[in-house]
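Obj.: predict assembly geometry.
Materials: sequence records (below).
Method: joint structure prediction, all chains together.
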Amino acid sequence: MARVFFQDVTKRFGRVFAVRELTLEVHDQEFFVLLGPSGCGKTTALRIAAGLEEPTDGDIYIGDRLVNYVAAKDRDLAMVFQNYALYPHMSVHDNVAFGLRMRQYSRSEIDRLVREVAETLGIGDLLNRKPGQLSGGQRQRVALGRAMVRRPQAFLMDEPLSNLDAKMRVQMRTELVRLHRKLGATFIYVTHDQVEAMTMGQRIAVLNDGTLQQVGPPQEVYDRPANRFVAEFIGSPAMNFLEGGVVRENDRDGIRTPEGFLALPDAVSAEIRQQGVRSFVVGIRPEHLTPVAEQAAAAFEGTADLVESLGSEQHVTVALKETAIVVRLPSSPRIERGATLRLAVAPEHLHLFDAETQLRVGP
Amino acid sequence: MTAAQQSSRIAGVAQRWLRRLPAYAVLTFCAALLLFPLYVTAVYSLHPLTEFLNEGVPSLWPSNPQWSNYFKSGSGVSNTPIGRFLFNSVVVAVVITAAQLVTATLSAYAFAFLRFPGRNVLFVLFLATMMVPLEVAIIPNFQTIQWLDHHFRTQAWLSWTQITWIDGYPGLVAPFLATGFGTFLLRQAFLSIPGELRDAAEMDGYGHWRFLLFVVVPLARGALATLAIFAFLQAWNQYLWPLLVTNDPDMRTVQIGIAAEASDVSRINIAFAGTITAFLPMLLLVVVFQRYLVRGLFGGSVKG
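Observations (raw structure tokens):
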């Protein structure tokens, strides 16, 4: 069992809270991603699990064992670091074997284990090289090998792909997912990259300012962000936000924003009445805005201010009366700068947040 | 290649040399200026004594080299051979160097890798010792050694150790076993070792001692070599301190021995020979390790 459980974990450095009352359960054999902007406390949380930092308050369990006072080396975890943390003066073989040397393995056994791991990762022919002679991707594999060779219960990964170039990163992403399936170990993966989180994580936890914002499967977090921060952080281009209040127009409940009227689904309006919230922030994902021909159907009208063509699609920044929103459209027909766009959005695609608490309102 | 091409190539090379000429002229002049005293010493060390007793300045060319000067070297007063002085210097320099490597490594590790209250204040205090010149500390140091010497001679529970501080190696090396400079130099080198390596080693089950031994020391060997050379050079070239704590000619270091020799006019040429003898080990050391000298001093700033 390698469930990792944070119970009310707080970490303070002086007067600064790095992690605040974090309660989180990572299931056995799960690929779990801690996601957040830099400085959100995700790395600190990982280091607390690893035993490299002591929590100021709260408990850490690995399996069912309370490990607050267990040394890092006795927690049966392995860590992969952002800068690989390979020992520059040792060969690849010795780097991978380094952890085994302390664990009373015989020489031949160490050799066998190192070779086995090297074969799995495709670095068998690099064993005699020094880290300085390797490419970034190869170094990353060596760092993985060093973690794997001890067969730990859980792998802790601290932004392991952020130093790789874009192409290598995509390749390593799939390799890591495959590796996770093969090893059947628990992975806790820290990243600030939402694409990594979305593509790799079975569940993700979003952190901000040391506080947990939301936990869930990637699609659920994307579809139903728990608050405005999560809504804004996940998704690229980012979600558009407009402020407004609830009104009743033409027998329909909706939000009146400075840019236009947005009708709400009946289920939502019922819930809003119940909760009594008056002012809202409405979130709309760029892909949920669709161009329409007639003015009556459109929620917004504006002019295309900036067109970014990505080949497969185009991102159009549309200047409205007071603000601008980003729309994600198919690459054809091509939108010209200055063109007038009428945009509609289906009521079920509106995300409503309480303007005061920033929390999600409605289903 | 046509003749025209070839001649233009030659012209290009000549032009390049011509452009460098002024720089080389200046460098040559500076080198000559620096090497001149050394040259004079070498020439004088080969002169017969009569050359110095004649009127006028001794010749700057060894017209009648006396290689035997090098074998006569030794204190004119006590007839101690220069070999003994050299031996003393080697013992003192080696002990000081080894001790500084150990003490500086340990203190630098603490400053670089451990978190403890008062770390920065303590480090500044270490740095402050670098501002105190040897001459300022020499009286209190001498009093300490004298006090130790007195107690080791008179107290029964100490005297069995037979340690002599005045006129003994302990007194010669004691004040130089640990230095702020060494701590500073190695701390800077250790700080360039990524903290993640420490974390990785900790996950692998390596404690501070093993991490220091297997990772930090191998990675900082350039800085360690630099410190070793500096410590050795400094110990070897010491003058004031050994003069103060030794009276017995047998315990003198080579610099004191030569000075004693030079004070006897009838052995002046032999003193010059002794100077060259004392200089050779240093020359060898610097030639062999000069890359560490430069690299070590700039190791923190220029990463390569």
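Conclusions so far: The longest strand of chain A covers residues 16-26.
To do: check interface contacts against the pulldown list.
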